[in-house]
Amino acid sequence: MKAIIFAGGTGTRLWPLSRKKSPKQFEKIIDGHSTLQIMANLVKQVTKPDQIYISTSYLYEQNIKEQLPDVPNQNIIIEPVRKDTGPAVAYVTYFLSQLKPDDPIVILWGDHVIKKQKNFAKALLKAESIIKENPDQLIFIGQRPRYPATTLGWIRTGKVLDSAVPYLLEFEKFVEKPDQTTAEKYMAEGDYAWNLGYFVTSPRFIMNLVKKYARDIFDLAVKAYSVHKDFNKFSKVFSEMPEISIDYAVLEKLPSKSAYVIVEDLGWTDVGTWESLKSALEDRTDDNVTSGDVLLEDCKDTLVYNFAKNKLIVAVDLEDIVIVDANDALLVAKKSSASKIKNVVKLLSESKYDKLT
Questions:
Q1: Could you name the CATH architecture of 2-270?
Q2: In sequence order, what are the residues at sequence separation of 6 or more whose Cβ sits closer than 8 angstroms to the Cβ of residue 247?
Q3: What is the distance between the alpha carbons of residues 297 and 20, in angstroms, rounded to a whole number?
Q4: Which residues make beta-bridge pairs with 105?
Q5: Where exactly are the structural domains of the chain?
Q6: Which of 12, 127, 147, 224 has the fewest CB atoms nearer than 10 Å to its CB?
Q7: pLDDT digit string (tens) for 114-172?
């Protein structure tokens, strides 16, 4: 199975660590490893390094080579212009369709953390076996909901097709991010999974879907591939792509009979904010999470990351706080307000502090 890990985002909500030149997926924030390295190492449990492909911006090619030296250089697929996940997925899958169009592929994201790696490996292998038998199918891999999340999309599932762990169920439809009441209803009913954006299929099948539901993206992906060795021409063609997610462009139009869902407890977290990073690392909500030279006294539910050398951070009587010292910038915020950091980065980019973004 070929694994495609997308690693081209900027991650502004993890500022001041995540910057344009070195976004969050490359920063070594978990036990000395980046989330990209963690995901790649996880995938190596089910496939070989030469079957791992990384889709990224041309700005980050060197980052990939340094962090994943066992992934062949030709497996780094460059996006010359950022155009959301629709064009990105379409181009990569067309690229792979020129190699072995019916071989199983899995779409993954380089800024996620999965704690229960054995469960994830089993889910991937089960999905791979299904696609080998039927390449004209798509298998979503969903997280069994841990709480009534309002910041995630959900998948409504149908009847159980295989009760062996991990469970295989019918796919019914995607549902948008729900409000709190609706999310609690989904939890109570039990016929839903969190949509992680992970799926296993064949390159030919996904490209047939793109051709059917997003013909403009398909035509431009084909054209971009034909000139990809000429960066200027490649950039010009790719810049004509519409800016749209793969969900809106294709997957939400997918007939239910063309997909299944594997639902498993993966211990999944999208490390998009300092709050979600803390959630990925803590055992209990009240736990403190620290990195670097930090001394806490009577603090709880607090994250302190100190990347400054020869400096000690001392905090007393704090709760629900994030402190991040990145040498040239210091962030202090309520943990529950960390999502506002994206707005702060926008303000910085429009000021004399743009170099800090």
A1: Alpha-Beta Complex (3.90)
A2: 85, 153, 174, 197
A3: 34
A4: 2, 201
A5: 2-270, 274-356
A6: 147
A7: 999 999 999 999 999 999 999 999 999 999 999 898 888 999 999 999 888 888 999 99
